[in-house]
Amino acid sequence: MGKGYAEGSAVEERQAALERGDDLSRQLESGRAAVYGSTDDDPETHFIGWRDEIDPDALFASGSAYGLQVVRRK
């Protein structure tokens, strides 16, 4: 029987990182969250603003922007 998904090298690396004391969640959260999306004025995906300054859910609900993505930037 083959290995299950949770028995692969990713799990082994995660366990080794925990034993070393690495904080992998902190690495994922580093940087500032940027909001990208499209507007009627500019249908190409572009930088709209910083996540801590704007609410992407409110923008989408108002119809001001669509195709929104939140991306971490250092």
Structure commentary:
- With 74 residues, this protein is α+β, with helices and mostly antiparallel strands.
- Helices cover 34% and strands 27% of the residues.
- The protein is built from 3 helices and 3 strands.
- The chain has helices at residues 9-20, 24-29, 56-62, and strands spanning 32-38, 46-50, 66-73.
- Strands 2-1-3 form a 3-stranded antiparallel beta sheet, covered by helices on one side.
Quick take:
The chain is of the alpha+beta class. It is built from 3 helices and 3 strands, in the order H-H-E-E-H-E.
List keywords for this structure.
single chain, 74 residues, alpha+beta, three-stranded antiparallel β-sheet, 3 strands, elongated
Please bin the fraction of helical residues.
25-40%
Order of helices and strands: HHEEHE
By DSSP (H or I, 4+ residues per run), the number of helices equals 3
Strand order of the largest sheet: 2-1-3
Shape label: elongated
Portion of residues in beta strands equals: 25-35%
Q: Would you identify the regions where 5 or more consecutive residues have pLDDT less than 50?
A: none
Structural class: alpha+beta
**Sheet with the most strands?**
3 strands, antiparallel
Number of strands: 3
Q: How widely separated are the two ends?
A: 43 Å
